[in-house]
Amino acid sequence: MDATVDGRVPPDDPARTATSAPPNCPHRPQEQHHPQPHQPQWNLTTDNAHASLPGAIQRKSRSNDRSKERAEPGAALEPADHYGDDGGGPRGRGSSDKLVVHLIIGFRDICVFTLVLPLGTLFVCFVSAYVFQPEEIHETHCRVYNIIPSISAITGVSPQRYLWRVSIALHIGPRFIIAFVYRNWYRAMVAGLNDPARVTKACRMINIVYWLNLVEISALCGVTYISNKENYPLHEKVFIIFMTTSLSYMLATLKLLKILQPDGPQTPNEESSLRYKQAFFALSIASTVGLILFFLKHRFLCQDLAFSWFALCEYIVASANMGFHCTTMLDFPTEHFLIAQNAKQYKKQQTSLGWKVD
């Protein structure tokens, strides 16, 4: 087989007809070759017959499967080394899709942490402030006799305020995670409902419960970091928002569970959780009524021990609020918080940590 002076195959050669690109292909413009002396010419064909050409250099051909993929119109060319969707680095032949767990914590342990941390810190603040700073924590605008300081008083003096703020800062993160988990858990329960009207009502209540929970957590941050000694008017308003959203969240949660469980709780844990939620909500309502009553007596009548009764109701409200949120241990007794690699195949749209209102 002969070759022309410029190294091309004659037109009557079938190898050129089978392998060369069409002359009008927009992606492969025709090139003009200008051979230079003492330089070998590149042969773009894969026919073994051209191996006998003097000075010709053959390029390695791809596999038949890769050639077919390139020949098909619209076939996507996938690079040999590319980064995976999870951002875990270049994915080559040795990559693995196995689930690699970096951290796993029992969800029950997270709930215990969210209860013990603020409760223990509150106890330490109460004892230390009562023993070492009694004059500061009992001081009120009426200057009447009191024996029980309020939560704002024992967490508003130094150094207790710093301990309390650090405790709440560590406590808030898990609270947000629990709020996200509850929203996804309620959405999963909606799948078991058959009544379209009930489904629509449940979805609306899920959003209400979710946002009330977020506002309650945010108001708790405001009450913590805006001290009554630094800015009492703003502290008072944020405290009212916290109390309102806390009670509204409890009521909305009980209403939502009634919608999602029309036949009542199905497991002993669900039954115990619902019973405790109802008890803590009733205790919160009763304590809130007493809190408002004794606060008005202290503020406008300056009665002795009125502020102490107000403080006692405040402690009961705080304890009931913690107890209501810690029923999460009964709702998720065997779940775990997981941080893992290659877990994207387990991710679903309804389990995203989104902030968008549906």
UniProtKB/TrEMBL annotation:
Record's keyword annotation contains ATP-binding: no
InterPro entries for this protein: CWH43_N, PGAP2
Chain ranges passing through the membrane: 110-132, 162-182, 208-226, 238-257, 278-296
Keywords, sorted A to Z: Membrane, Transmembrane, Transmembrane helix
Any Pfam family: Frag1
Location of the region described as Disordered in the Swiss-Prot/TrEMBL record: 1-92
CWH43-like N-terminal domain span: 108-334
GO annotation terms (biological process): GPI anchor biosynthetic process
Signal peptide: none
GO CC annotation, single: endoplasmic reticulum membrane
Bias (Basic and acidic residues): 62-72
KW Iron (keyword) present: no
Protein's name according to its UniProt entry: CWH43-like N-terminal domain-containing protein
Organism per entry: Anopheles arabiensis (Mosquito)
Classification lineage: Eukaryota, Metazoa, Ecdysozoa, Arthropoda, Hexapoda
